[in-house]
């Protein structure tokens, strides 16, 4: 050990420098070594009789992390007294107020901080967030854009997008997320959100692109897996979708939408027992989810377990009484249960509720035809044609399920024959056999009870997607 | 399965790249990456490890020197070491580097491990107004209270903060002020700051053994460059915040670049020709480690992320880390032209990154708090780490070790190959399915039939209850009442308590009576009919009566209670009380039966 001449040289300052251990406090704080940090702070505050601003500041930060928000607020306020010039102290006071839910007070303090420091994105960003909570979307939008001008951050983009979504403006939200993804192309959260928004708008190509990107950077992203998987399902890529679902099932094994989608994958692969198993698990996990009940009803219809299908469908209807497809499926189940009166009533209800689905009318038409009521069947058939034409007008690339088209053509033939020759041509329960290949308008699509199930399966999968997203 | 084995292979390969040279779990070192240096202290071509040890954090601070696996020397430090660098300060032969230890407002320079020079940071400017006020106090022109008021005024407005003395004075109680002023007024007022980080900058040559200047960052946000020989301040720059980490490159006389991470979460890039930061990187969380790799800056942040930036502050990439960063260091092997960033993580791992690609992982027995890579002894690729528990780890990179720079984009996650846990269905289930298929219609009809019957039965029971005023009803509600009956006693005497409450909002109920109906062979009641007083809304009226059981055969029956309105025969409320059996001397515990009924007036005829 060397003799130290520094002893002689150094004349201890009359008062210890207040900030002398700030660096050490900071070092422990950023390394999340809070226990050591607190010990140093305590010592430092003891030494300086509570005058070390930074020690108080970090102590307050740690307290806030520990959930003692009110105490942290008080400490930050005392920091602001020690150093009233610092916008940092005011920012933290405002942050604590925000966490306590006092958004208006937080806005006031943030505005005060903004006077001390004009060009701080954090202040603008947090002001924006506060405004969201006070439902002042216009000011929020303004502040967040200001924050983006000062400095771009992923978080600000997400918040801005959220405002647009809260206002129901998906297009604008997409624009925001688009520029966010440009700025930060590897942020899976942003990519997933953007993908989901595209999906809501029906732009599946773009949606898939972004979801795929998200999965490239983070193959375990649950949201992206569910959304991308459901799109694969729509295109019949059941095996690929299942591969993705396996990853998701490992990380989130108790997700109802996930098991719903897995169930519908098995359904698509015609493994009905497995499908029922998975759907029943989903139903067990979320008993009041009408989508799962809908799918269960559908699978049971396919399995010709009409009595069970009836129960699942009527449960779904109880949860969601204004959904025409549910009534349609219920009618199909009732038809098979030899309850024609109730089947007709259910069909009528479905037609009454429905606005755009030609399938509902087609099924009713087939039902009426089988019941021998050709006039009413023709009316339903025409209604279906009208819906199909509207869809084609709106979007010329609309594709209809081939089975539905085939069935519609058969029915058209049968109806024409019936009307043209005024012969009573009895259609059996399996209309395919009876219908002759009569010429029919090319764009006309219909189907029959058996076929619909396939079609609705796809419908359901589509429905289960946004569901998953919401989770 | 394949990816699991792949991963296992990877880790075993990674661990085999290093030789475990030394591990001392009780080396008792409390230090950080900024306080560690490898230096050829004696000019004998053998590098020593120099550590500024923070001791307990309060006392016992040491400057320790290790050679090989042993402690060569240790000397006491006066205060906590903030940073430690080794640098060549002159051209004298032998070319032995000096050690500079930053501590508080001082830099202690050691040569040959002997104290050589002490540099003190220049004092900060003192507010002239504050100076003025104190000099007035010195000449007793103002009393302590006035002094306090004036200083408070200064504190709240002045651009330059007050000195510690004034701040301390403001904290005092009035009776202590006089003494404080007497004691301190003769001393000059000083404001001092402390050093927060230290680095070196080559003076005018890029050679490895060129003379270097010291670069220091201070608590009040200044950066100084000191002359290596005279320790005069060559250059001073200011930052908007306190610097915490620093990286310096270039030569002082030609062009240099100082990258400073600051306490406000920003990174500033300073250049020779400007006194203010040239570029600014705003991070979304605090930087924990800062390493320059070639022309890029790699920053590890508290949000478990690693970012790459260009030297102009443009973001290049982001990688997500599995745990919080504890420290970072550069791994530089110039002989092999290999560079990587070492990132110490809180999950007891050290990751090696080349750009955003993870090229290796080292598992450590404890959380690593400081990392230093370089030439130690005569071995070029030595990795020195200290741990949170005070341990010292020395590893040597194998000369055969190869780091393939493949893209670390992961293959399919392991979970993808795990079978889905699909619930199995039994044979019974399948049989039942078949049965349903065959008999769906019959099953459905039977079910519907039973359902209808159930509903009918329920409706009948309901109507019956309604008719005898047994159930709560919400029809014509003019006199809402609530009744609760409690039977107490072992028998043959029972106490029957009726709690009656008027649940109306404000209207009192008057002119009510209670009547009992019971089998007179079984029970006798002292009063089988009495009047109820006016019922104030919300209050509970307990009404007691006594029932005597006449039978000794242990039979029990129902007693019916009717709440009646005077002048009307239809009851407002009916309650059936199941009387408990008379227990006699049996050991069974007494039974208490109670139930409550809510009722309203209705105009049903007496059945």
From TrEMBL, chain A:
Residues 456-471 have a biased composition (Basic and acidic residues). TPR repeats lie at residues 154-187, 188-221, 290-323, 324-357. It holds the Pfam family TPR_11. SMART domains: TPR (SM00028). Keywords: Repeat, TPR repeat. Residues 421-471 are annotated as: Disordered. Belongs to the BBS4 family. PANTHER family: BARDET-BIEDL SYNDROME 4 PROTEIN (PTHR44186:SF1), PTHR44186. This is Bardet-Biedl syndrome 4. It comes from Cirrhinus molitorella (mud carp).
UniProtKB/TrEMBL annotation, chain B:
It comes from the Eukaryota. Coiled coil: none annotated. Residues 18-271 form the Bardet-Biedl syndrome 1 N-terminal domain. Pfam families: BBS1 (PF14779), GAE_BBS1 (PF23304). Residues 586-607 are annotated as: Disordered. Residues 481-582 form the Bardet-Biedl syndrome 1 protein GAE domain. This is Bardet-Biedl syndrome 1. It comes from Cirrhinus molitorella.
